[in-house]
Amino acid sequence: MRRIASAAVTALTALNLATLAAPACLTAQQVDTVAVGRGRLNTTAIHPYADTIDVVMVRGDTREQRSTFTVSLEPAPAGSGGELLARSVTGQVVYTSILRAGNFAPVRSRTQAPTDSADLVFEAGRVRGWVVPVNQPRAEIDLALDEHAYPFVSRGLVMTALPLADGYAAAVPSLDAFNGRVTWVTIRVVGSDTMTYRGRQVATWVVEEDAGTTGASRRYWITKDQPHMLKALSLRRMNDGSENWWVVR
């Protein structure tokens, strides 16, 4: 085993996220910086669910289903004290997070995959555990970290609990434990749309996410009534001009 000692982790160890400025592309009047305990998230509107999502490649008039994954939110196992279990499963890749029901603050986050894995515990202003990055040995993690840096698996869930409205924007701190850093992901409501979902017309917010250099930037369609993500579009086109969509069945 080895201990992470990169410059990024060294800087993060002493970092108080509350002092970070919001991304420069958003003005102070536009930004609602998401932090646990500040009343930004409406978690009471989010209900347990289990969705199957098709990943579809679209090129012109051609649609090709590439893969399928499942996402779910449910009460955590008995004895967890009012916590929720968020899970995303794609083949052998499983992401799980245990979150506090009242504010979605992370309690534990795990990644299980053939190429990398992680197990992190959030407690008393620190995150501790271990990661195994791709093609690298296991590294121990022990970082000073505000608890409102959300693991990847819960970021979409946090988005649905934001007070979305015309012109709304937010900056959400997202934890990348494998690189020992926090990325501020900007969220903007860019419009409204109506789509057909399971035989009925549903009003949605169209929300755009800018994850900076991570390549994960997407556009989401989130229902206005009982907020729930119904589809997403990757904002990075492939070299052949094709688009990748996530569509909830």
Describe the structure.
The chain is built from two helices and 16 strands. It has helices spanning 7-13, 152-160; strands at residues 2-3, 31-33, 49-59, 62-75, 83-90, 93-100, 106-112, 117-123, 126-132, 139-144, 169-176, 181-197, 200-210, 218-223, 229-234, 243-248. A 16-stranded mixed sheet has the order 1-10-9-8-7-6-5-4-3-16-15-14-13-12-11-2. The longest helix is centred in the middle third of the chain and has 9 residues, at 152-160.
Q: What is the average per-residue confidence, as pLDDT, rounded to a whole number?
A: 76
Biggest sheet strand order reads 1-10-9-8-7-6-5-4-3-16-15-14-13-12-11-2
Fraction of residues in helix: under 10%
Separation, N- and C-terminal Cα atoms: 42 Å
- The fraction of residues assigned to DSSP E strands is over 45%
Radius of gyration: 18 Å
Low confidence ranges: 1-29
Largest sheet: 16 strands, mixed
Q: Could you spell the SSE succession in H and E letters?
A: EHEEEEEEEEEHEEEEEE
Output the number of helix runs: 2
Overall, the morphology is globular
Structural class: mainly beta
Tell how many strands the DSSP assignment holds.
16
